[in-house]
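User: Batch of two.

Assistant: Item 1 of 2:
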Amino acid sequence: MSIENVKALVFDTFGTVVDWRTSVTREVQELAKRKGVTLDAAKFADAWRAAYGPSMNRVRTGELPWTKLDALHRMSLEKILVEFKVPSLTETEKDTLNRAWHRLQPWPDAVGGLTRLKKKFIIAPLSNGNISLMTDLAKYAGLPWDCILGAELARHYKPDREVYQSAADILDLPVAHVMMVAAHLGDLRAAKNVGLRTAFVTRPLEYGPDRKPDLKPDASVDVSATDFNDLATRLGA
C-alpha cells in the first residue's frame, strides 16, 4: 500500500513532539530552588520518565485497573520524591509538579512543521497521555491538532494494538491510510504490525547528552525525516 493513500498522521508526543526532559528538569529546578533543596533535577526527570513504562505495565497486566497517565505519574512521583530525599511537599505542590507534564516545550520545528502537515493531512496525537493532559499540552505549546486521540480512548496503553487500531476506527479510515509518526522505533514497529504506515523522525537530544536515542530507521519505517519540516517536505505538504 503506497504512502500516497495516507490521509491522517498520528503522532507519538513525549519526545517526538515535545522536549519532556528539558521541560521537566526546569520545573524540578524551580521547585528545588523555592524549597531550598539541592538535587540533580535532570536525574530526577530521568527517574520519573524511567517509571513511565513500568507503571503502564501494571495496567497492562491487570495489577491496576485502567488508570490515567496523570494518576500513574503521580504514583511514580511519590516514590521519586522519597528517593531524592525531597522534604515534605504539600498536596498542592505535588499536584503542581505532577502537571509539569502538561507544560512541555515543543521542539523548535514542531509547531511550524505540524502547521504545514495540517494543510494536507488530518493531524492528531496518538499518545499514552490522557485527554486532559494532551489538551492542556496543546494549549500550552500551541500544537495545532485537528483532534486528540490516544490511550484513554482505547483504554489501552501503547504498544497494545488497540491504541493504533483506535486511530483508524475513530477517523473512519482504513489502517493503511493512517501514518504513525514517532522518534521511537518500538512505537513504529507496533503500529506497522497493525497495518499503519510509519514515519520516523529523529530527536537526538531527547534523553540529554549521555544517552543514545534511536537515530537510524529500520525495516518498520516507510519514511524517515530529520524533523517535522523535513517530513512535511517529504510528504508534499
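Item 2 of 2:
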Amino acid sequence: MALTKADIASRLFEQIGLTKREAKEIVEIFFQQICEALAKGQQVKISGFGNFELHDKKERPGRNPKTGEMIPVSARRVVTFRGGQKLRARVEVYAGKNTDDTQSTKQD
C-alpha cells in the first residue's frame, strides 16, 4: 500500500476536522517546506521520524549492463533519508512479527 498526499489530507480531514481544502493546503505546504530547505542545501530533521540529507556524489565509472560498454556516471547531488530511532524501532517490531510468522509456517 502506498501512502499519498491525498491520503494524508484525508486523515487530517477525518481526524482533526479540518476542511478538505485546509487539509490539502497543509500537506502541500509541509512538503513544499521540505523541498525548499533541501534546495537551499539544508538538512531536514523531523523529530521521531528521521532526517533528510543531501549528499554529493562524485563522477564514477559505470557500465551498461546490456552491452557491457563502459560509460561515465556524472556527478550529482542526491537526497537520502535516514529513519530515526523511533521509526526504526516500530519497523523492527513489525518486521519481527512477519519474520516469526514466516518461520513458523516453514517449519510446519
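Strands lie at 44-46, 50-57, 60-63, 70-73, 76-83.
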